[in-house]
Amino acid sequence: xxxxISVTGTAVGVISLxxxxxxxxxxxxxxxxxxxxxxxxxxxxxxxxxxxxxSLKKTLSDRNFRxxxxxxxxxxxxSIQNCDDLIYELQDEVQKFTRTSLxxxxxxxxRAGRRATYPFRQSTLQKLDExxxxxxxxxxxxxxxxQLNDNKxxxxxxxxTKDLLDLVRTSQVSFELRGWLKAPDTFxxxxxxxxxxxxxSGAWLVxxxxxxx
Length: 213
Known about the structure:
Layout: H1 9-30, H2 37-62, H3 70-81, H4 84-98, H5 102-112, H6 122-181, H7 186-196, H8 203-206, H9 209-212
Helix pairs in contact: 1-2, 1-4, 2-6, 3-6, 4-6
């Protein structure tokens, strides 16, 4: 079957960066989550994306791909690489957010109002939400490909096991039929009959005058 293969380090690195960036965004927006429904939505969306990232990373870490699964590995890598630019966009957002301390951000909000402040502008939140949805779609595609492949493998294993059991059952029936139809062993039957014979059995017949004649 060949040596097992794995997803490239580049793809795994993209996932790790995605987790790091998403955690930073969650931490930032979580501080303001209860004060605005839009922020609550974006925070919940980020948490959902973080769970998807972590699920894929764990799955890839625990999984050994067979040599005949190169197509599956390629599809997963493509889905992850499609997120590359989007994750770097999120990273840029994190860097912009962290240039200003929490105290300075609060001061700006008080002066200009929350919706006029960069991290909370409707356009910023909308673009962030779009990026998150695109990333999640690609990562979910990778997870779906893994799930479909595993389901197919399980189904194939079940079918293979069933065929094997049918073969064993057929072989057993065939063996029993051959045993039942097999001609008896006359040598064994003769010795078995002799062993049951009582001394003098049949002597009256072979010693009679009629038998002698």
